[in-house]
Recover the amino acids of this structure.
């Protein structure tokens, strides 16, 4: 099975504790209506059974809409709920083991916090790099110093893998993140904590589309 070619442009990473406008399923559904192109289920506090059940619920919601579902870290949960892939960090399961378990068709992203880690992710054949964090953010406190826009530009010049930027990104700075070379922006609070997830997603999608049109003209 060949790997899918996902659209990383507006990538929602979940956090139930931040949702203010309804259940996580409600927020995800409305965010997809607004233009979210990929969803990562990241719920550190759930037991395995609840994690799988939530994954199945989101998979049932997203699959008919053609939006891929990835699971953070947990390959077992991804397999059990039929997710389209996983996202792994530097202390999670190794990429080679995740690929062997998930299969050739799965989408596997790898968080990178240094140029060396980025080089390894590209060498291994990851589908994309999660550039983490671009800016400081309260939702990710266990990471290295922020890359900043210049760091993101440096990665873009050096590597060909899709770059998904995460960390402190919202409507006010999304455009400059795309301009610095990101193929997608991963957001948590910008959508989960919004009173209107559909509008929040639509705003970010409009930025992504605008940057793509500008790039096509150049």
């Amino acid at each position: 099975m060949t790997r899918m070619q996902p659209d990383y442009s507006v990538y929602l990473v979940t956090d139930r504790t931040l949702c203010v406008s309804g259940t996580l399923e409600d927020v995800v559904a409305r965010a997809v209506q607004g233009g979210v192109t990929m969803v990562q289920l990241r719920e550190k506090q759930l037991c395995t059974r609840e994690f799988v059940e939530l994954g199945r619920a989101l998979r049932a919601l997203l699959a008919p809409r053609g939006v891929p579902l990835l699971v953070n870290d947990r390959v077992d949960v991804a397999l059990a709920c039929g997710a389209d892939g996983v996202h792994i960090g530097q202390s999670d399961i190794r990429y080679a083991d995740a690929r062997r378990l998930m299969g050739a068709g799965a989408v596997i992203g790898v968080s990178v916090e240094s140029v060396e880690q980025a080089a390894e992710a590209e060498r291994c054949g990851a589908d994309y790099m999660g550039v983490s964090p671009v800016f400081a953010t309260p939702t990710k406190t266990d990471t290295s110093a922020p890359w900043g826009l210049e760091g993101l530009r440096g990665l873009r010049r050096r590597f060909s893998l899709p770059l998904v930027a995460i960390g402190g990104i919202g409507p006010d700075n999304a455009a400059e993140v795309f301009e610095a070379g990101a193929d997608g922006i991963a957001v948590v609070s910008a959508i989960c904590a919004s009173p209107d997830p559909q509008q929040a997603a639509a705003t970010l999608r409009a930025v992504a589309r605008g940057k793509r049109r500008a790039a096509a003209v150049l």
